[in-house]
Design goal:
homodimer, about 35% helix, four-stranded antiparallel beta sheet, 11 helices, 15 strands, Aminopeptidase, alpha/beta, nine-stranded mixed beta sheet, 2 domains, Alpha-Beta Plaits
Chain lengths: ~425, ~425
């Protein structure tokens, strides 16, 4: 009993068409026309697989395969929306893998004790409304109705209106809430979005914990001066101050906090930003992550100390705002063990590893036991046309997802 | 015989209206409607002062006050165009100062041996067509007809079309050329655009040399990776590489080249530029200046060495392009002495100083003896609504310009 690579490939190719760009990439923003087409495809497939479909007020799509008993289900899935100009694997493989699990169960006439549900979470990517993993957040009560009208995309469309236009029911958002115990277990298969599995030659990753970011917005104010007429010792250059901070964040993450701490400055805006003007203002974003809460706190503290030091040394005004400061979450030991046992049994080489990226799986830990499977990302690239995972790796991951889903649905992982 | 501050103020206020913004700043881009209005004002004043007006093919406006003899004239002036959202002093004070010199000569019925010409150079600011000091470059043959159609503003209008629309004659650009000997001397009064005169409490600056920039465009290519899932030791972060370069440029200019060397990174573009992505590409601009050619070469060499070092250390691809590498120019000793003598005679405290910024005066050195007067810039600010110079300082500078113009026109500076 194995998954069928051809069928996976077929689903993959079918979904890849929705929002495909001339450069080969894809833009399938949450609730866009392309996303709605992909959702319709998913609904059609679910129906063809005899799943009982339900769609909640936020558009989260669930397809249920009944079990022997009317118990809380094992849920598997991910998301179909993408970033702008993104790749074809992020999110998608978790949904097509879940569909393939159902197909194998159907063709083998397996009846599991517990129901199994396939889920497509709405709006996992933060690109459109500047906030992501919204489907799972809504389900666990971490994103509420009051934010629907204030979440606005770049064209001025609110999340509320986007939901209405898509035919969902934002006025009844609270109906999408689920409670502790409603779901027996949740598993998400996803691309790694990092280079570790490929570089260390593992076939699959079993995720142990999800590192939540602490994010800073930093505003550095110096004085814009003429680049030719301002002697070096009379400058207040916001960009040299920013550079000291950027190198400091790298240094702190590399060797002054935890072994797994990562620290990134991903964007910098310079004002006025002209060749012949000493920069007067800089805004930059800092993203610090760790699965160890203590190590992350150490790194964050050192970054703040460094900001104060640079401010003083360089006579700049530096303000910072902490945009997010979430706690890392640990995934279910029961599911991790179950995945390990199955991987060993079938001879898949696996690595127990953290996820540095956030996923819907993170929020699902609020209401159920959660596991995640990582598929190697070639060159570690994601959110990009160069994003690529091998179909044989996706097949292997789906086989692991299948085995573990059966074990959980049969209550054989206790 | 002194200049009249009220008349200066009147001209200043009149010109400040053309392109004035709600925030108090001004946008008077080269050959724009606002610039053309300011030019018309200048023409009207020139005519009211009985100057003989001529306009060349590039729109450079000259107003001539005849002398006793038909000899090459003493030319004084600057420019009326501004950067977007700029201030009211840059360029303007050199033109209104020159008009006031004529007024004083007229009201005192002074006939000089040599003619005196007031000039407004076209398109001094590089904001509109990405190339500046074009009026003087055209006059000395450093900007030629072949570039008129390829110099395009942000709305897609070529310099050729802008000239046509303004009523000038781009097809006969070469007619604007002047030759060595056509002009006896040129003097430009300008704001300092730096903080030195104010901080060191001088009333006026006498410019000894103009530092020409060496400008680099640098492209750093690393690899865009997920900020959460890419361990620090597996990254190729283009922005940390850029930061090392930015701090290196500062260090080289501060203490590893000449005493007067300045080095600036004025802009940085980061790709993809998202909070949660390790930057894959960075473009930045480096501007190195010195009035000492040897010191500048040392600095440029060190910057290039540093680029190679960072490329190797951080496993990045770094390409650079030298956009400009001009030679610093030394101004006329004869005129510097003349200005010094007059300043001493009238008790103005002056500083002999370089200009870090380029000016039309720089190109005029190709065909004649050149001098420059700097007026203190409060807080060193320019190209900005905060640009400010005190009217009493402008008056004092204009008095110095008047005295030196008379000396030169009377051939008493030999």
């Amino acid at each position: 009993m194995k998954v069928n690579k051809e069928r996976l490939k077929q689903d993959f190719d079918n979904i890849a068409r929705f929002g495909k760009l001339d450069n080969g990439g894809v833009t399938r923003l949450a609730f866009s026309e392309e996303d709605l087409k992909a959702r319709q495809y998913l609904l059609d497939v679910m129906k063809s697989l005899n799943l009982k479909v339900s769609i909640d007020a936020f558009g989260n799509i669930r397809g249920r395969r009944e079990g022997q008993f009317d118990l809380p289900p094992v849920m598997i899935g991910s998301h179909l929306d993408t970033v702008p100009n993104g790749g074809h694997y992020d999110g998608v493989i978790g949904v097509i893998g879940a569909l393939e699990v159902i197909r194998v169960l159907n063709e083998n006439n397996i009846v599991t004790k517990r129901p199994i549900e396939v889920i497509n979470f709405s709006c996992e990517e933060s690109s459109r409304f500047r906030a992501g993993t919204l489907g799972s957040k809504v389900m666990v009560g971490k994103f509420t109705k009051d934010k629907l009208k204030t979440s606005i995309d770049k064209d001025g469309i609110s999340l509320y209106d986007a939901l209405k236009q898509a035919g969902y029911d934002p006025d009844r958002l609270e109906d999408a809430r689920i409670n502790n115990g409603d779901i027996y277990a949740f598993m998400e298969m996803h691309i790694e979005q990092g280079p570790v599995l490929e570089q260390e030659k593992y076939q699959v990753g079993i995720v142990t914990a999800i590192a939540a970011p602490t994010r800073f917005k930093v505003l550095i104010e110096g004085r814009a001066d003429h680049s030719g007429n301002t002697p070096m010792n009379m400058r207040k250059d916001a960009l040299t101050g920013a550079s000291a901070l950027i190198l400091g964040v790298e240094q702190i993450a590399k060797s002054e906090a935890g072994e797994r701490t990562v620290g990134t400055v991903g964007y910098v805006y310079v004002e006025p930003g002209a060749m012949n003007v000493v920069p007067g203002k800089v805004e930059l974003g800092i993203d610090i992550r760790d699965i160890n809460s203590t190590d992350k706190k150490v790194a964050v503290k050192k970054v703040i100390d460094l900001i104060h030091k640079i401010q003083k040394q360089r006579n700049l005004e530096i303000k910072y705002e902490i945009l997010a400061d979430e706690e890392p979450v640990v995934l279910s030991n029961k599911i991790i063990s179950c995945l390990e046992n199955e991987a060993k049994k079938y001879g898949f080489s696996y690595k127990l590893m953290p996820s540095g990226a956030g996923h819907d799986a993170m929020y699902m830990t609020n209401v159920t036991n959660v596991g995640m499977i990582f598929i190697p990302s070639i060159n570690g690239v994601s959110h990009n046309i160069a994003e690529f995972s091998r179909m044989e790796d996706i097949k292997m991951g789906t086989d692991l997802l299948l085995k573990a889903t059966i074990k959980l649905a049969q209550e054989e992982c206790e």
